[in-house]
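Dig into what follows:

_____
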Amino acid sequence: METARAWLDRVAEEDFGAGLAGLPEDAKLRDHGLDSLDVLELTMAVEDAFGCEIDDAEVGDIDNVTVGRMLDLLERHAGLRRA
């Protein structure tokens, strides 16, 4: 089974052209090519891929979502191991 990190890195690259591989967990997605709409779409991709629903409050400030925050969401809602 794919890890949360592998899933995030793959989808960010394939769907948004954003290279997140190797970035630390405190890296903000917006600083690496994902704007707020992209983060929203990435969250929706998690929901679609894993049949879950993620509350906006769990995502937090859409402009300051980090790699680590997305990994938290993938662990919690998709049941993926972090690494």
Summary: Residues 4-78 form a domain with the Non-ribosomal Peptide Synthetase Peptidyl Carrier Protein; Chain A fold (CATH 1.10.1200.10). The chain is about 55% helix and 0% strand. The chain has one domain: 4-78.
